[in-house]
Automatic annotation (TrEMBL):
Species of the source: Maribacter ulvicola
Keywords: Dioxygenase, Oxidoreductase
Record's protein name: Catechol 2,3-dioxygenase
Any one GO molecular-function label of the UniProt entry: dioxygenase activity
Domain VOC: 2-130
Protein's UniProt keywords contain Protein transport: no
One Pfam family in the UniProt entry: Glyoxalase
Top-level taxonomic group: Bacteria
Record carries keyword Oxidoreductase: yes
Length: 131
């Protein structure tokens, strides 16, 4: 088995696409209409374009339990997912310069350093560097 696709619920696929591509350097892989204003919208890492895809899932707009879960995680400050980076401090500074808002600044925790930011689409996202 291997991971080919993971999803992140987003309040707006358009806003998420802009944020994840312009700030996080993801690259759009698929953009297929699936009815109404919804799309099968996937991204890949700019560093690993043949790697797993990230689905920007419009579930919060269409499925109440998804919206409730996403909101509860956000209000508790719990990251929905995490992305690995080579240098958390460097990535933190790059994202701060792009206007990204962080709830947790770079913090060493055991054998890792992490930081948490708001993706503007209803999620906290954690970046992590294994030390």
């Amino acid at each position: 088995m291997k991971i080919k696709l993971v999803s992140v619920p987003v309040e707006s696929q358009d806003r998420a696409l802009k944020f994840y591509t312009s700030k996080l350097n993801f690259v759009k892989k698929k953009d297929i209409p699936v009815g109404e204003a919804n799309r099968w919208l996937t991204l890949v890492s700019g560093e690993e374009q043949d790697g797993p895809e990230l689905l920007l899932e419009p579930a919060p707009m269409n499925f109440e339990p998804s919206m409730t879960y996403q909101k509860a995680l956000f209000e508790a400050g719990i990251p929905y997912t995490q992305f690995d980076v080579a240098d958390v401090q460097k990535e933190y500074e790059r994202l701060i310069n792009l206007g990204v808002k962080f709830s947790i600044k770079p913090t060493k925790m055991g054998a890792a350093k992490l930081a948490v930011f708001n993706d503007t689409c209803g999620n906290h996202i954690q970046i992590i560097e294994v030390l």
